[in-house]
Amino acid sequence: MIVSLREITENTGKTEKHQGSVEFMEVAVNGLRYPVISASPVEITVTNIGNKTVSVSASGGICVTIPCDRCLKAVNVQIPYDISRKLDMKKTEEQRIAEMDEISYLTGTNLDIDRMVYLEVLMNWPVKVLCKEDCKGICSRCGKDLNLGPCGCADEPKDPRMAAISDIFSKFKEV
Ligand SMILES: [Zn+2]
Ligand SMILES: [Zn+2]
Q1: How far is the CA of 71 from the centre of ligand 1 (A)?
Q2: How far is the CA of 173 from the centre of ligand 2 (A)?
Q3: For the chain, is the Cβ count within 10 Å smaller at the N or the C terminus?
Q4: pTM of the entire structure?
Q5: 79 Cβ partners below 8 Å, 6+ apart?
Q6: What residue spans define the domains of the chain?
Q7: Cα 131 to averaged position of ligand 1 atoms, centre (Å)
């Protein structure tokens, strides 16, 4: 969705409210693509705060599917955003190009809401996603989901030589 800031740029003190929608269907992070399941409408307020400067606020949230870090089960994660920017409309295209952030969602007086929200979602991307706080993950040996019960790998008798080594390590840690 594009919001034109042409009129507001010429009218000091003027405020406009818009409601937009998120149009991107997936988010790419580190080469992986995550589908957007739902998105709330974007509530946008633009105000000319004088000196040809327009303040923009946009808030809302999207829901994306991200695999659990431990067991890879799909988890629906809410990513809210609350954007607040001041756009200096006196700047030339060249000046904006020098400032990487604005150029990508402001072209002339056209504000690209989708692009602005997308960049904000990337900033708010969760560092860690777990299906539940105490997810037990999957067994590194047999691949069983340990949330469904133990797999039996841990019950196998330990190689006595390995047991000796782990003893040495645990003593070493105590020192
Ligand atoms: Zn999990
Ligand atoms: Zn196992």
Answers
A1: 4
A2: 27
A3: C
A4: 0.80
A5: 61, 62, 63, 64, 121, 124, 125, 126
A6: 2-123, 136-175
A7: 4
Coil vs helix vs strand at 33: strand
Nearest ligand atom owner, CA of 152: 2
Per residue in 61-100, pLDDT (tens digit) is 999 999 999 999 999 999 999 999 999 998 887 777 777 6
Interval between CA 153 and ligand 2 midpoint (Å): 4
Ligand having the closest approach to the CA of 156: 2
Q: How far is the CA of 77 from the centre of ligand 1 (A)?
A: 13
Average predicted confidence (pLDDT) for the chain: 88
- pLDDT tens-digit readout, 129-160: 999 999 999 998 999 999 999 998 866 555 55
pLDDT value at 14 more than 50: yes
Alpha-carbon gap, residue 57 to 88, rounded angstroms: 14
Distance 137 CA to ligand 1 centre (A): 5
CA–CA distance, 116 with 107 (Å, rounded to integer): 12
